[in-house]
Amino acid sequence: MRYNINASLIYDAADGTITLPGSNTPDAQLSITASALLLFFLQHQEVVSREDVLKKVWDDNGLTSSNSNLNQYLSMLRKTFRHYDIENIILTISRGNLQFNPDIAVEMLDSLSLQPAPEVHSDRTMPPKVVRDRNAFPKAGKINWNMASAVLLILSLLMLPLSLINRLNPVSLSPVSVSGRGCELSGTTDMVGSVTTHDYEKNFFNVLQKLNLTCNPGQQYIFFYSDKLQTKGLGRVFLAHCAIHGNIPYGYCDNYFYYSWEPK
């Protein structure tokens, strides 16, 4: 499913890519959660409550919702589209409600084989929007240094957990049986084989309690930490809280990374 937004860019909901008109190469790509959030607002351009957004984008997909998560991704979308001269793509309405900016023209180009995003059921039919001609998008071949800087920053943040994974060799995952808790837990093969199950479970539930997370059906956790934690010192900790999406076992994940953690 593709959308022409303000006649200045093409958004493809199938993979979250943003492409400039006339180009076959994506100019940017949204994360899974940011793309799901944008698609929700494109499909529901009426005023919606924050509770509806949290439920349909996070809760219904087995993820932990919070206002801080919503604020983070709203800010991410606004900054991304600001690079394309589209201001305030999502508006904050009175009493904390939200709405896709009605001044932004949207045209749905197709509806290919994409599973629709979770919907807020409404009988209200939105009037078609008129696409306005604009020349606000950058010319082909012109380097957008702001976008390049943002991409480099995002890549550097993504490399933090990856750098920790690479230090644990091999990086294949092994399931861990958690007694009586109902958690689907996996850790790196190297870590699972080097610590006792008791210590591993103790540290896992310590982090879980600190983050106010629980074990629920259809959700999975990936957990590992550095050697310093094993000696009861400060250590780096990574926890992924994932939900199954269709046939994808780790379709949606909230990731938590601590550079320094001290178990209680």
Largest sheet: 5 strands, antiparallel
End-to-end Cα distance, whole Å, is 48 Å
Give me the side-by-side strand order of the main sheet. Answer: 4-3-2-1-7
Q: How many DSSP helices?
A: 7
Residue share in β-strands: 15-25%
> SSE order in H/E notation?
EEEEHHHEEEHEEHHEHEE
Task: Furnish the topology, listing elements before pairings.
Blueprint: E1 2-5, E2 9-12, E3 17-19, E4 28-29, H1 32-43, H2 50-58, H3 67-82, E5 90-92, E6 98-100, E7 106-110, H4 145-166, E8 173-176, E9 184-188, H5 189-192, H6 197-210, E10 219-225, H7 227-230, E11 235-245, E12 248-261
Parallel strand pairs: 9-10
Antiparallel strand pairs: 1-2, 1-7, 2-3, 3-4, 5-6, 8-9, 10-11, 11-12
Helix pairs in contact: 1-2, 1-3
